[in-house]
Write a structure and sequence with these properties.
This protein is an alpha/beta fold. The chain folds into two domains: about 160 residues, 3-Layer(aba) Sandwich (Rossmann fold), CATH 3.40.50.300; about 70 residues, no CATH class. Helix content is about 30%, strand content about 25%. The chain contains eight helices and nine strands. The strands form two sheets. Strands 5-6-7-3-8-9 form a six-stranded mixed sheet, with helices on both faces. A three-stranded antiparallel sheet has the order 2-1-4, covered by helices on one side. A hairpin with a 2-residue loop joins β1 and β2. It is globular and about 50 Å long.
Length: about 240
Amino acid sequence: MANGVNIKVENLSLSFGKNEVLQNINFEAKAGEIHCVIGPNGGGKTTFAKSLLGQTYHNGKITFEWIEKRGIVGYVPQIINIDKTLPVNVLDFIALCIQKRPAFLGVDKKFKKQVDETLDKLEMKNKSKYLFSELSGGERQRVLFAQALIPNPQLLILDEPMNSVDKSGAEVFSRIIDGLKQNGATVIWIHHDLEQVQKIADKVSCINKTVVFSGEPKSVMNEKNLLKIFSSRQGE
């Protein structure tokens, strides 16, 4: 049973100065679905995700209809830069993301079991005391994914989280995401792998400043529509 959120975006537009990034975006995502967002680099996908998260000012309307009470939102960005001199280990970083009390006091007891289980699922438990800055790019993405899963999200927004992840890591990510879907969560996944999108997405929307096409992958991911993704270059 779906326990996520239905999302409806109406006429979303956003500009940075005179640069129009998004124009009249209309978009719907249903609870319990994986809705992939594809499009060319610079087409506005990340800005769209940040609009859903309330991180950017925009015109238009975004409505969240939670199936139960207002739920938890998890977010995994493409990449994060951190000062290499900052003495923050994996557990410290997760604590900073999931709790109000200072990270130097350790992970709150109410989260400790889930933190351990999540790091174990992501094959990172043995590196929980490693400094975040010492991790490889793929390992950092696993940690970013871990913090988005604690506590369990009813809405998960992913901004190409697998760019630095190896095949093994990608399989782990996909397995966990499928589990969230089976539990009824809503997943918005910005994705660049069109072959995988066709396999895992319930719905797909192509954004290149505006919505180029949207629907079920088997219906809209045809050669004619896919060519539209690269037919022009729009800047973010």
